[in-house]
Amino acid sequence: MRKLVYYVASTIDGFIAGPDGSIDFYPFEPDLQEFIRTRYPETLPTHVREPLGIPTDTPNRAFDTLVMGRGTLDPALSLGIRNPYAHLREYVFSRTLEGAQSGDPVEFVRKLKQEDGLDIWLCGGGDLAGQLLAEVDELVIKLSPVIAGEGIPLVRSNFNPTRFALVSATPLESGVVVLTYARR
């Protein structure tokens, strides 16, 4: 069965984006770029893959499907890009965006997990992660050496302590630490 993996950048204080949804404060140093290129190339938007040295025919390694919330899609929409990850099967959950998924994300993801293929990437945001927390099998957090103070939290939900076990920690020279956790 496929896993739902929440692969996301986070600040030390647990925010995935600024209050306005911005992510431009995250360091994107060469060591992090290389880590992503070699381990998770499909997590880079289609329009930036070639400029970052990822040929268009590079196979997906971890994911073939992604689910995201409307706020995660908004930066691409502001650039006129409707499908920022055209090399993946994209599903956007929104109550207002035409053509988006509007039903129960939990049931939808449970069905996706039953299909054959690579794992499913929960791309963001915090609200969708909160709704899907019970379905998250693994967390891959690119913990950045940044304190934001406020913003969109890693997970927004009611109080519900959920335990995960640390699988690996990969420190990068830039100070980013890639933490991988599995559901306990």
TrEMBL record:
GO MF entry, a single one: 5-amino-6-(5-phosphoribosylamino)uracil reductase activity
InterPro entries found in the cross-reference section: DHFR-like_dom_sf, RibDG_C, Riboflavin_Biosynth_HTPR
A Pfam family that the UniProt record links to this protein: RibD_C
Domain Bacterial bifunctional deaminase-reductase C-terminal: from-to ranges: 103-178
Gene Ontology biological process terms in this record: riboflavin biosynthetic process
PANTHER family: 2,5-DIAMINO-6-RIBOSYLAMINO-4(3H)-PYRIMIDINONE 5'-PHOSPHATE REDUCTASE (PTHR38011:SF11), DIHYDROFOLATE REDUCTASE FAMILY PROTEIN (AFU_ORTHOLOGUE AFUA_8G06820) (PTHR38011)
Protein name according to UniProt: Deaminase
